[in-house]
Amino acid sequence: MKRRILNFGSLNIDHVYRVEHFVAPGETLAAISYQKNAGGKGLNQSVALARAGAPVCHAGQIGEDGRFLEKLLQEEGVDTANLAVTHQPTGHAIIQVEPGGQNCILVCAGANGSVPADYMEEVFSHFGADDWLLLQNEVAGLPTLLSLAKARGMRVILNPSPITDTLLAADLSAVDLFLLNETEGLALTGESEPQAILETLTARYPDAEIVLTLGADGAYWQSGGERCFCPARKVTAVDTTAAGDTFTGYFLACRMEGKGAQTSLGLSAKAAAIAVTRPGAAASIPRWKELLETTV
Ligand code: RIB
């Protein structure tokens, strides 16, 4: 059977408010506009993988109110056979976007927050050593997911976002590839300089590949003694939501196709640059054809 990526990840309903500035403590602020969008780091990354041409199966939980997220994944060609619909409400996010395109996000786990162990075991019974597992940290049960994947010999990719105490306490030695930003790098290593983050993570996980994204300052890839860098494309940001998810999905799709690290970084940076020029999370992610036809 062809290699697949199992993305065991969050699905959220994003409530997006455009604001003049982020709400300050004690302040009541009128929003400029409101939109309800498909989101969740997991869902966004599955959409990015699918739009980049990778075979992706999404597992995770929604409530009845999230059926439109399942439909969206199916329309994108994502395999949703392992998605569970529970009696809980779907996870949601409250997102403020300011005129410069920066955001701040409050996530409420909902159905993402209580994932039964027997459901996880059932999902993993359909995957084997040729397959890859992609995880973020918006779904409960990270340590169990890591050990189930390792028991089956799967390659494990972790985007450690958001950082939580559970994640910081977890044994991450099963991870084969980390994709993280500077904030997550600081939380994991105590270091703020990119070089120091890379060195500390490589010393701690010598067999793991690391991708460190720095927003407008580009992205690094490191594996053992090898390192490469790709500058970011200069664009005018409208909404940076899901830029990291776009990068993650494209990077994995490129690597799965056998592309080298430098080429994969370049294509992922371009995809993320396109995504920030338009509003929304999943909706902002470019398709492969568009990526090749667009100059940014
Ligand atoms: O990475 C962006 C995503 O983070 C949003 O879609 C929101 O749902 C949160 O999970």
- Percent of residues in helical segments? 25-40%
Q: Give the DSSP E fraction (strand runs of 2 or more residues).
A: 15-25%
The order of strands across the largest sheet is 5-4-1-8-9-10-11-12-13
Give the name of the CATH superfamily. Ribokinase
Structure description:
This protein has 296 residues and is α/β, with parallel strands linked by helices. The chain has a single domain (5-11, 41-84, 113-293), classed as 3-Layer(aba) Sandwich (UDP-N-acetylmuramoyl-L-alanine:D-glutamate ligase), CATH 3.40.1190. It is built from 10 helices and 13 strands. It has helices at residues 41-51, 67-75, 117-124, 142-151, 165-169, 182-189, 194-204, 243-256, 261-276, 288-293; strands spanning 5-8, 12-18, 33-39, 56-62, 83-85, 91-97, 103-108, 132-135, 155-158, 177-181, 209-213, 219-223, 226-230. It has a 9-stranded mixed β-sheet, sandwiched between helices. The protein is globular. The model has no long low-confidence stretch (mean pLDDT 96). Residues 10, 12, 14, 39-41, 44, 93, 105, 107, 138, 241-242, 245, 281 line the site of alpha-D-ribofuranose (RIB).
Task: Give me a quick take on this structure.
The chain is of the alpha/beta class and 296 residues long. Helix content is 33%, strand content 23%.
Characteristic terms for this protein:
296 residues; alpha/beta; UDP-N-acetylmuramoyl-L-alanine:D-glutamate ligase; 9-stranded mixed β-sheet; 4-stranded mixed β-sheet; 10 helices; globular; binds alpha-D-ribofuranose
